[in-house]
Amino acid sequence: MKLTAALTLAAAYLLASCAAPEPPKPRPPQPLLTAADHDKTVNLIIGETVDLHLESNPTTGYSWNSLQLPDGKIVKQTHHAYQGPAESGQTHLLVGAGGVEHWKFLAVAEGKTALDLIYRRGWEEPQETDQKLSIRFVVTKEAPKEE
Question: Which residue range forms the structural domain that includes residue 125?
Fold first, then answer.
């Protein structure tokens, strides 16, 4: 009887030790980035995406121009589109009314890279007063361990 109980206990211990480790808790989605996130560092795990929305008004010639795009081997731009005022719920198109430029980026490999944009008319020389946006991306294989 003792031998049966001991073997049962040993088998239960062996099975418990072979169980798969608890999977990591999913991270909350990345917050939406805007112009207010200038000079921000965004930490991503390979496979995560991040969205960037910036007010823009190409009807007056102003739009976001790239000074530096992220290294596509680390963070890949998967989407970029302009959404005008009529598309964002207004019932009529206002001449000179602005909209929003939308970007989506995907973390594809470990590393560090940056995005630098400037809001200006593409045919004009850059000015000190031009609005700029710089975002740094740090991509890792897994989230840093919480202590």
Answer: 30-140
Which runs of E-coded beta strand occur in the chain? 40-45, 49-56, 62-68, 75-83, 99-107, 111-121, 131-140
Q: Is residue 51 part of a domain?
A: yes
Residue 37 placed within a domain: yes
**Looking at the 3D structure of the chain, how many domains does it have?**
1
Q: Is residue 2 part of a domain?
A: no
Q: Tens place of pLDDT for every residue, the chain, 147 residues?
A: 566 666 566 666 666 666 556 665 667 788 899 999 999 999 999 999 999 999 999 888 899 999 999 999 999 999 999 988 765 555 555 667 889 999 999 999 999 999 999 999 989 988 999 999 999 999 999 876 654
Q: What is the CATH number of the domain that holds 52?
A: 2.60.40.2020
Q: How far apart are CA 102 and CA 120, in angstroms?
A: 17
